[in-house]
Write a structure and sequence with these properties.
The protein is α+β, with helices and mostly antiparallel strands. It has three helices and five strands. The chain has one domain: Roll (Nuclear Transport Factor 2, Chain: A), CATH 3.10.450.
C-alpha cells in the first residue's frame, strides 16, 4: 500500500465509524512514547487502544471532527521529502452542517523486519503524526 492508500483506508474507516476508524489508524501508526511532537502534532502511536484514542479526539475541540466525520477529500497527492521516505498529505474534513477544516497526515516509509531469516525486509508506510488546524 502506498501513502494515498493508507490515508484513504483510514479516512474511509473513520467516516464509517469513529471506533473502527481509530483502530485502523492505530494499526498504521508508529509506536510513540509521547502524545505530541515538538511542534504540537498529535502522535497516534502514543495511544494503546482505539477507545483511548477516540476519547482523546472527542475531548479536543481541534480534533473532535474526526469522531463525527461526514466527508473528507485529499487535496492533491502527497508531498514527498527525504528521498521519498516521508510523505505529507493535506486533506479537508468536515462533519454534517459544518465548514471544511484542514487536516494533515504525515507518513514515513519504514522497514518491517521479516520473521523468516531468508526473507528480505519489507517496506511499509506508517502514520507518524496528524495535525488539524483549528475548528469550524
Amino acid at each position: 500500500m502506498g501513502p494515498s492508500d493508507v490515508i484513504d483506508y483510514c479516512m474511509r474507516s473513520l467516516r464509517a465509524d469513529a471506533q473502527a476508524g481509530s483502530k485502523a489508524l492505530l494499526a498504521f501508526a508508529a509506536k510513540q512514547d509521547q502524545m505530541e511532537d515538538h511542534v504540537g502534532q498529535l502522535l497516534p502511536g502514543f495511544f494503546s487502544d482505539a477507545s483511548e484514542f477516540v476519547t482523546h479526539l472527542a475531548s479536543q475541540p481541534r480534533y473532535e471532527t474526526l469522531t463525527c466525520l461526514s466527508e473528507f477529500k485529499c487535496m492533491g497527492t502527497p508531498d514527498f521529502s527525504d528521498m521519498s521516505k516521508s510523505a505529507a498529505q493535506k486533506l479537508l474534513v468536515r462533519r454534517d452542517g459544518a465548514n471544511w477544516e484542514e487536516f494533515f497526515v504525515n507518513l514515513q516509509l519504514t522497514k518491517v523486519e521479516s520473521e523468516a531469516e531468508s526473507a528480505l525486509p519489507r517496506m511499509r508506510w506508517i502514520i507518524s503524526s496528524i495535525y488539524k488546524q483549528g475548528t469550524a
